[in-house]
């Protein structure tokens, strides 16, 4: 999909540039943007390292585990069809907590492990279960404690207080997560009935 | 909102202190771990650099040609309805589809308007408060071979729409 978007942006851009008589500006923009992408990356480097470094310390000093244990009761509400001591629950908790701490490298393998465990509970291997849907929705709405790349970007561009948007980000992602949970819970009740009704 | 802004001020130092306290309690080698983690930061940046070059060029060309103005003109009724700054609107479309493309777009907006403007802040909050839906679904469902994803996409997009609205609302509430 991103391939089509990228080609589309460039082709439409160049054609629109020709029709609008701005082709010289378009060419200049292409060169300047390539240059600024590299400048941005180097601007991000320091702050990004600061947070990935700190989060590594958090992971190894047991904070990630501790939070994982604390949120366990919530998991039982969100995933009622997973048996209580099933390894799927643990993997889901660890994935969500890793996302929370922005540990992208750790979050993805844990998420795939969780999916494998959920698949082992699944009767129809080609169709997602309610727990899988809930897990994926929680992942796409992910709450992040420190959005390191956003803070790094704002630092690089000279924001007065680079982290002052952090509470807004928390508010917006908590709203999204709540909406996602409500939507998934409601849709899980009506989805298959709707399909059956259509078949009749 | 002074109160919320001061939470933002204290959030990072508090997280610093909690993590360092945990490291002291657990007697882990904090500095060695920090250096180790920071290396991952460098790898991440190096990994995103090529895609950022490609995408910033595409966004730059699209904007400079005037095509962006046409897109915004078409989307105008919806943008006005939400009270969104028009130049930020394409980000709402891009965010669920591609993480690196939307990061490039946020970079453009912050460069154009400045990080401490309403536009710059809304873009940063929109970027920080959601994940790339299509990528996440492809990776996780692809890993176990699920073909029928049922209502996952609908629920994820509903959450995404709420996060766009909440981003606007939260920025207006906190920064006025």
Overview of this protein structure:
The complex is a heterodimer of chains A (about 200) and B (about 180). Chain A is about 80% helix and about 0% strand. Chain A has one domain (about 45-195). In chain A, helix 1 (about 1-20) runs antiparallel to helix 2, helix 5 runs antiparallel to helix 6 (about 105-120) and helix 7 (about 130-140) runs antiparallel to helix 9. Chain A contains nine helices and no strands. The two termini of chain A are about 35 Å apart. Chain B has about 180 residues and is mostly helical. Chain B is about 80% helix and about 0% strand. Chain B is built from eight helices and no strands. The mean pLDDT of chain B is about 90. The interface between A and B is large, with 102 and 109 residues.
Helix content of chain B: over 70%
Helix/sheet category of chain B: mainly alpha
User: How far is the first residue's CA from the last residue's CA of chain B?
Assistant: 8 Å
Rg of chain B, alpha carbons:
19 Å
Give a quick precis of the structure.
The complex is a heterodimer of chains A (200) and B (176). Chain A has 200 residues and is an all-alpha fold.
Q: What is the element layout, followed by pairings?
A:
The complex is a heterodimer of chains A (200) and B (176).
Chain A: H1 2-19, H2 23-60, H3 63-70, H4 72-78, H5 87-100, H6 104-120, H7 130-140, H8 148-156, H9 166-199
Chain B: H1 2-26, H2 30-64, H3 67-82, H4 89-94, H5 99-113, H6 118-128, H7 133-144, H8 152-175
Helix pairs in contact in B: 2-5, 5-6, 6-8
Domain Nucleoside transporter/FeoB GTPase Gate (chain B): 46-147
Protein name (chain B): Spore maturation protein
Organism (chain B): Ruminiclostridium herbifermentans
Q: Keywords, please?
A:
heterodimer; A: 200 residues; mainly alpha; 9 helices; B: 176 residues; 8 helices; 82% helix
């Amino acid at each position: 999909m991103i391939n089509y978007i990228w080609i589309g942006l460039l082709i439409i851009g160049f054609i629109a540039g020709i029709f609008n008589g701005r082709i010289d500006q378009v060419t200049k923009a292409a060169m300047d943007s390539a240059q600024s992408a590299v400048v941005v990356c180097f601007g991000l480097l320091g702050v990004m390292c600061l947070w990935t470094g700190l989060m590594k310390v958090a992971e190894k000093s047991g904070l990630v585990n501790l939070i994982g244990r604390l949120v366990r009761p919530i998991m039982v509400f969100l995933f009622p069809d997973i048996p209580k001591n099933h390894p799927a629950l643990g993997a889901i908790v660890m994935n969500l907590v890793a996302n929370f701490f922005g540990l992208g490298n750790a979050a993805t393998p844990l998420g795939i492990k969780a999916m494998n465990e959920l698949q082992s509970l699944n009767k129809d291997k080609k169709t997602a279960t309610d727990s899988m849907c809930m897990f994926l929705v929680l992942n796409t709405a992910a709450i992040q404690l420190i959005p390191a790349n956003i803070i790094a970007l704002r630092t690089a561009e000279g924001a007065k207080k680079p982290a002052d948007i952090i509470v807004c980000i928390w508010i917006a992602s908590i709203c999204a997560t709540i909406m996602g949970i409500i939507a998934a819970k409601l849709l899980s009740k009506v989805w298959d009935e709707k399909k059956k009704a259509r078949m009749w | 909102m002074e109160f919320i802004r001061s939470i933002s001020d204290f959030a990072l130092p508090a997280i610093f202190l909690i993590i360092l306290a945990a490291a002291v309690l657990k007697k882990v080698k904090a500095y060695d771990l920090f250096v180790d983690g920071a290396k991952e930061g460098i790898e991440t940046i190096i990994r995103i650099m090529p895609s950022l070059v490609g995408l910033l060029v595409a966004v730059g060309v699209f904007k400079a040609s005037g095509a962006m103005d046409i897109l915004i003109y078409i989307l105008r009724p919806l943008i006005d309805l939400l009270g969104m700054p028009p130049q930020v609107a394409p980000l709402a479309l891009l965010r669920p589809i591609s993480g690196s493309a939307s990061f490039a777009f946020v970079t453009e907006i912050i460069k154009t308007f400045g990080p401490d403007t309403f536009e710059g802040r809304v873009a940063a909050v929109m970027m920080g408060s959601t994940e790339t839906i299509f990528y996440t679904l492809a990776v996780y469902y692809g890993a176990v071979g699920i073909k029928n994803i049922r209502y996952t996409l609908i629920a994820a997009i509903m959450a995404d729409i709420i996060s766009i609205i909440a981003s606007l609302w939260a920025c207006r509430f906190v920064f006025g």
